[in-house]
Design brief:
- Helices cover about 35% and strands about 30% of the residues.
- The chain is of the alpha+beta class.
- The protein folds into 2 domains: about 1-65, Ribosomal Protein L9, domain 1, CATH 3.40.5.10; about 70-145, Ribosomal Protein L9, domain 2, CATH 3.10.430.100.
- The strands form 3 sheets. The protein has a 4-stranded mixed sheet. Strands 2-1-3 form a 3-stranded antiparallel sheet, with no helix packed on it.
- A hairpin with a 2-residue loop joins strand 8 (about 125-135) and strand 9 (about 135-145).
- It is elongated.
């Protein structure tokens, strides 16, 4: 029986895919749990239209990502953080901190998931960070400066 998967199912497929499964598996598990629905003649036409629209949407998102990538690639941002006299930060710099600094300094929105950090940045100085956009990559230099001003 052919079914349209409504959600990702491990070892079977991703949402939106059409798969052949046993009739019992479809009727007893996939349909009652709303993980899939049966394929009919009208569904096949509708699937073709929705896949085309989805492909256009993905192409637009990728184009925007590449444009943003060009603006961010090989740029340098500065982050001030409190540190010990030896240059060790009291609080590590995370992907969220980097995304916020990129938005403030470069005007580009990044999601923390797009920033590839091997580990949090914990020392004053320069660090290189990779950014990943839809299978495209960019580099960003981060300069961490010591900021030990007294708050009043």
């Amino acid at each position: 029986m052919q079914v349209l998967l409504l959600k990702n199912i491990p070892k079977l497929g991703s949402a939106g895919e059409v798969k052949n499964v046993n009739d019992g598996y479809a009727r007893n598990y996939l349909f009652p749990t709303k993980l899939a629905e049966p394929i009919t003649g009208g569904k096949i036409v509708q699937l073709g239209i929705s896949k085309t629209a989805q492909a256009k949407k993905i192409a637009q998102v990728k184009l925007k990502a590449i444009s943003a990538l060009g603006k961010i690639n090989n740029q340098k941002i500065t982050i001030k953080a409190k540190a010990s006299p030896k240059g060790t930060l009291f609080k590590a710099i995370s992907a969220t901190d980097i995304a916020t600094a990129v938005l403030e300094q470069l005007g580009q929105t990044l999601k923390p998931e797009q920033i590839v950090l091997q580990h949090h940045l914990k020392e004053v100085g320069l660090s290189k960070v990779a950014l990943k956009f839809h299978n495209e990559q960019a580099n960003l230099t981060i300069e961490i400066l010591q900021n030990n001003e007294q708050e009043k």
